[in-house]
Amino acid sequence: MNNGIFFIVTAPSGAGKTSLVNAVVESDDSLCVSISHTTRPARPGEIDGENYHFVSKEQFIKMLEKGEFLENAEVYGHHYGTSHAWVKDKLKSGTDVILEIDWQGAEQIRNLFPNACSIFILPPSVAALSERLQARAQDDVETIENRMRQAVNEMTHMAEADYAIINDNFGTAKEDLNAVIRSRRLTVKAQEARQTKLLDNLTR
Question: Which end of the chain is less crowded, N or C, counting CB atoms within 10 A of the terminal residue's CB?
Answer without folding.
Answer: C
